[in-house]
Design brief:
The structure holds three protein chains of three kinds. Chain A is α/β, with parallel strands linked by helices. Chain A contains ten helices and twelve strands. In chain A, helix 4 runs parallel beside helix 6 and helix 6 runs parallel beside helix 7. The chains are: A alpha/beta, B alpha/beta, C alpha+beta. The interface between A and B is large, with 42 and 46 residues.
């Protein structure tokens, strides 16, 4: 009986929020976000060079949508995700969550805000403390933030576990008994237990087997529908991102090169890097022999990115202007932004 | 009375526990048994000065580079014997790419390690079965009987391996050049320093490294992941092997780099005139690369055939499910197909089909013993009761064809 | 997705399958669930190694020997054996003897102050092993076996107390330094560096000499000794803990703890400390042997546990001094057992420490 109450209550809260806003509102607005990591410093403690992990990134997400962030390793997508949670300090720019400025918020208020934005990690093995039971792992922060009354705590956790496909007897087990897929479910349950609005999924399925991958993706999609969650889905796997996202942002060396809705990115790919990324994905069909764009060379070091357009060293359509002038991210269709000299910049 | 009841429930509890947990006595017993078997197998393995005749065999088909014949590779752990590879037979024809797919723990890596005789001893052992290898000199070796010492002659020179982690498979304290030269010195003792250097640089050139001379004298940490994987491939190539085993060669790399490496592997196969055994969990990679595909599940082959057969006409429900569960590009927006449940525990596998409990299409027969590998076309084999009809049909046409031929 | 597990269960129970089920009532894993905590796993692995079991048994035997043995032994720690008369204790220039009081006809303890042990109170010193004295008596007429037991008490107790306080101090500063980083880390680590460059033995000797100089009572001196050993020993543990904390801080479950908004206290005590514990336990066990060794060294040098209290080091030091050469050559029963005890204790601790390390991290063993 009590279990039902909690569940209803939980759903009621979510539905209130979800239904009352018929027009989906912007839940997260990021403006000119910059995150630089200091690299070298001289004798007088003045940092001389930076790794520009995230360099001037702006986007907005509407409630209930999923923003897919794609890019190769070192493109700053993980840093972006963690900076949004303010797990890193913010170098410059603005992050507005529900009209709260995350950059200037005080520490105590940040702690209160924490449950609202959650994160799921790539490696399900290092993201669970090995010396705590599953019940403790999921319920710890719930208790800390007093989200449910103490006497309903256990039922609430079991309920969350159930909705993540975890049987109740897991409650008193330890993480070492579980496989990668189960652990990822536990991570999702931990995030979900805090009743978040926004979940940053940092490559949540990259470390999993194909059949388990599908289970986790479906779980994420189901939970999104059920609780009206908003996702920022970070991945290097374009096919997964295409499946789950409503909007997509392609990043290269800390900057956004193309940004738009899923249809715009996949049907009307404009930036040469996005094109190359798309064509590089292997297709599980032996008859399809694609005209593949194979990029030359490696990704340059983010500590020392090329001048002009950062992509010009590997671009097949590189022009003289690309080597000197940095292209501006410009809107070509409604909501479709591209930063490339191939298209008129003025 | 109460006490009796309590005792009874306690006993029942213990019994229930015994079903899912192994007792200490059992552990001791298995440990003892294991150490006996391991000792015997190790003794065989560690022999010296074994006459070559003992491990020479003949290939069933001289056009194959490798023939796995009912290979059993076990890990003898205290909790029980893990049958990582349990009766696997397939061939790697000359000048072809054979892809081995499966989820983690299905035994695909163990198969390749067994071929190289690199199973982690003493617990990991080739228990039975043959691996026939067609050497460059025309002889055929039975790898499972070759002692450890003689294996060194075959490894590297005849077949070589590319690993998943390019970050850890190069020694960080030696220059790239030294590591490349070392292999040459090992297999061609008469080679001079200059020749070795030249050969190494030309190898680096072959794998598409832009400035081979400068890379030759660099340390591994100065190179990116893609470059290191190229160096690994150069190392694998340096002795002109017959067979390259690539164990998840692109899993740790970015998509654009993966495309480069796959392209390179394809070109190299043509250059060296050898075969590649490509192990991966990525069905997309296999589809693009492989001529023949072997699908493994829980240590056994459940389906094998040409790439077209596996992708266009899959029969086993697991193969079908795997293909449906990839979120491929340009699909419509339904929920993804999932195979329910997880891979069974590798210790104490059931005697019925290992996939039964996850299978959607199971029927009465599936409770019977593990299905045999049935032939449904000249190249296509499936281990599933669903394929029985097709197999019977194929057997009939084959027989008819045979009779016709005989009449002619 | 939540229905997936349900579905799966339904799928398993096929019509054909149910007959089998009836014969053998299916016990689902959840019913018979036995929670295996990481601690239990470690213990299981620990007891699989023969060497660590040997270590544990040796250690338990030594504990029994040191703490239960004296209750059984007929001799006291400082009880002399003399001719016809029982000598109960001896201090320099003072001897307590049990004598027959001729008036009352009872045995009484009588204290004599003297300058030289002379004929009437001749003690049985340096007797060879016999039924009464299985390991003989030493140069003062004390029973060697009994003194070994008392010596064990001192060594083991001192070892445990010192390592315990070292761990507490080291863990406090180490986790502070590793978790907060910055100037806190700088200050603590520089202090640790200073401690690490102090030469251990000379400093200890100096300190012990100082205590001597203050004229502190022998009974209290052992506590001072513990304090000094702790003071110079905590830095190693602090450094180890700091390294571990630095590693754990970067792990994703710590980032998750940060993201869920847990308090600093909880992060340290619930997430970091339990995960550093394994390394600390191993380090502490291995360190115990070292502490016993340095205690013995100090006692041997005559600046540790003072005479007449027994300590293994003091017993070996009987080979130095006026009678030293004689004892070394002719009476091995006086000093060899103490040496064997030290070796055994240190070895036992090392075996247990190694066993624990392998049990905590099975990947390391190969």
């Amino acid at each position: 009986m009590r279990k039902n109450n909690v569940n209803q209550e939980l759903n009621a809260i979510r539905n209130d929020q979800f239904d009352s806003e018929i027009e989906k509102k912007d839940i997260l607005v990021v403006k000119n976000l910059k995150k630089y990591f200091p690299l070298g410093s001289n004798w007088f403690k003045k940092t001389t060079s930076f790794v520009k992990a995230v360099d001037d990134v702006s986007f907005t997400i509407k409630k209930g949508n999923t923003l897919g962030v794609v890019g190769e390793s070192g493109c700053g997508k993980t840093t972006l995700g963690r900076t949004i949670l303010r797990l890193h300090s913010i170098t410059d720019g603005q992050i507005m969550y529900d009209n709260i400025d995350i950059r200037t918020i005080k520490k105590r208020e940040l702690t209160k805000l924490r449950p609202k934005i959650q994160i799921i990690f790539q490696d399900p093995y290092s993201s669970l403390s090995p010396r705590m039971t599953i019940g403790e792992i999921i319920g710890e922060a719930v208790r800390e933030h007093k989200l449910v009354p103490a006497e309903e705590h256990r039922d609430y956790i079991l309920d969350i576990m159930k909705s993540c496909g975890l049987p109740p007897y897991y409650y008193s087990r330890y993480p070492h008994e579980f496989s990668g897929g189960q652990r990822q479910r536990i991570c999702i349950a931990r995030a979900l237990a805090l009743k978040p609005d926004l979940i940053v999924c940092d490559e949540p399925v990259s470390a999993l087997d194909v059949s388990i991958q599908a289970q986790i993706i479906n779980l994420l999609v189901d939970l999104q529908k059920k609780y009206g969650l908003t996702y920022i889905f970070i991945s290097h796997d374009l096919s997964v991102v295409e499946y789950i996202s409503t909007e997509i942002m392609v990043m290269y060396l800390g900057s956004v090169v193309e940004q738009g809705t899923k249809e715009q990115i996949f049907k009307n790919t404009m930036h040469p890097y996005s094109k190359a990324l798309l064509s590089a994905v292997p297709v599980p069909d032996p008859d399809v022999k694609k005209q593949r764009i194979i990029l030359k060379g490696d990704i340059p070091s983010p500590a020392n990115p090329p001048k002009g357009c950062k992509f010009h060293t590997r671009c097949s359509e590189c022009m003289d202007i690309c080597k000197t002038v940095t292209p501006i991210l410009k809107e070509y269709e409604k909501g479709h932004f591209v930063a490339c000299h191939l298209y008129p910049q003025d | 009375m109460k006490l009796l009841e309590k005792l009874k429930t306690n006993q029942e509890k213990k019994k229930a526990l015994a079903k899912h947990y192994i007792s200490k006595e059992q552990i001791k017993k298995t440990a003892k048994e294991n150490s006996r078997i391991i000792k015997e197998l190790e003794k065989q393995n560690n022999r010296k000065n074994v006459p070559e005749e003992e491990y020479l065999t003949e290939m069933k088909n001289p056009n194959n580079v490798v023939e796995f014949d009912d290979l059993h590779a076990y890990f003898f752990t205290d909790a029980g014997v893990v049958k990582a590879v349990d009766g696997v037979s397939f061939d790697i024809p000359k000048k072809s790419i054979v892809g081995v797919v499966g989820e983690s723990g299905c035994g695909k890596s163990v198969t390749s390690l067994a071929l190289m005789k690199l199973l982690q001893s003493p617990t990991g052992q080739i228990f039975s079965g043959e691996i026939r290898y067609n050497a460059k000199n025309g002889k055929a070796y039975n790898i499972s009987k070759v002692p450890k010492i003689d294996m060194n002659k075959i490894r590297g020179k005849e077949m070589s391996m590319i690993f998943q982690e390019p970050m850890t498979s190069l020694n960080p304290v030696f220059r790239i050049g030294d590591q490349l030269d070392e292999i040459l010195f090992l297999h061609f003792p008469e080679i001079t320093q200059e020749e070795a250097k030249q050969k190494s640089i030309s190898m680096l050139n072959t794998v598409g490294i832009a400035m081979p001379e400068s890379v030759y004298s660099r340390y591994p940490h100065e190179l990116s992941g893609g470059m290191r994987q190229r160096v690994m491939i150069a190392m694998a190539l340096s002795c002109d092997p017959n067979l390259i085993i690539a164990d998840e060669p692109t899993t740790a790399l970015d998509v654009t780099i993966q495309a480069q490496i796959l392209d390179l592997l394809r070109n190299i196969k043509n250059d060296i005139n050898g075969s590649i055994m490509l192990i991966t969990h990525d069905l997309g990679v296999i589809a693009e690369m492989a001529d023949y595909v072997v699908v493994m599940y829980a240590g056994r082959i459940i389906e094998k055939g040409t790439a077209r057969e596996i992708y266009k006409n899959p029969i086993h429900p697991y193969t079908i499910g795997l293909q449906k569960s990839i979120p491929a590009l340009n699909l419509n927006d339904e929920t993804l197909y999932t195979i329910p449940g997880t891979v069974p525990n590798p210790i104490n596998l059931p005697n019925f089909c290992y996939f039964r409990d996850r299978c959607e299409k199971r029927f009465g027969k599936c409770n019977g013993e593990y299905p045999k590998l049935l032939q449904v076309s000249p190249t296509h084999h499936v281990a599933c009761y669903l394929a029985e009809e097709i197999a019977a049909e194929f057997a009939k046409t084959k027989k008819d064809g045979g009779e016709k031929n005989a009449k002619k | 997705m939540s229905t997936l597990v349900q579905e799966n269960k339904d799928l398993i129970n096929l019509p054909n399958n149910q007959e089998q089920d009836k014969q053998e009532p299916e016990v689902s894993l959840s019913d018979s669930a036995k929670v295996i905590s990481p601690g239990r796993l470690v213990l299981r692995r620990f007891f699989r190694s023969k060497l660590s079991i040997i270590g544990l048994i040796t250690l338990l035997a030594m504990f029994a020997f040191a703490f239960i043995g004296p209750l059984i032994s007929p001799w006291g720690e400082v009880q002399m054996t003399g001719d016809y008369k029982w000598v109960t204790s001896i201090l320099p220039h003072q001897i307590v003897v049990q004598e027959l009081n001729e008036e009352t006809g009872l045995m009484e303890e009588v204290t004599y102050v003297f300058y030289e042990v002379s004929d009437p109170y001749k003690v049985y010193a340096k007797t060879p092993p016999s039924w009464d004295h299985p390991l003989g008596t030493d140069q003062y007429g004390y029973d060697v076996l009994t003194r070994l037991m008392y010596g064990g008490r001192v060594s083991l107790l001192l070892g445990f107390i010192v390592i315990f306080s070292e761990v507490i101090i080291g863990m406090f500063f180490g986790s502070l330094s590793g978790y907060f980083g910055g100037w806190v880390d700088q200050v603590i680590m520089r202090v640790v560096d200073i401690f690490n460059c102090l030469p251990g033995l000379p400093i200890l000797m100096l300190a012990a000499a100082l205590i001597d100089g203050w004229g502190i009572e022998p009974r209290v001196r052992i506590y001072y000794l513990m304090g000094i050993l702790t003071f110079f020993g905590w830095s190693g543990i602090a450094r180890l803990v700091r390294g571990q904390v630095l590693g754990i801080r970067e792990l994703e479950y710590m980032v998750a703890a940060e993201a869920t908004g847990l308090s600093t206290k909880r992060k340290i005590f619930k997430h970091i400390i339990p995960n550093v514990m394994p390394q600390i336990i191993v380090q502490a066990t291995l360190g115990l042997g070292g502490i016993i060794l340095s205690e013995s060294t100090l006692s041997y040098l005559g600046i540790g546990v003072p005479f007449p209290y027994a300590a293994w080091g003091t017993m070996i030091s009987s080979t130095s001094g006026a009678e030293g050469r004689d004892i070394l050559q002719n009476y091995p029963n006086i000093w060899v057992p103490a040496g064997v005890c030290i070796v055994m204790a240190v070895l036992a601790f090392n075996f247990i420490g190694d066993g624990l390390r392998d049990a905590f991290d099975p990947k390391m063993r190969r």
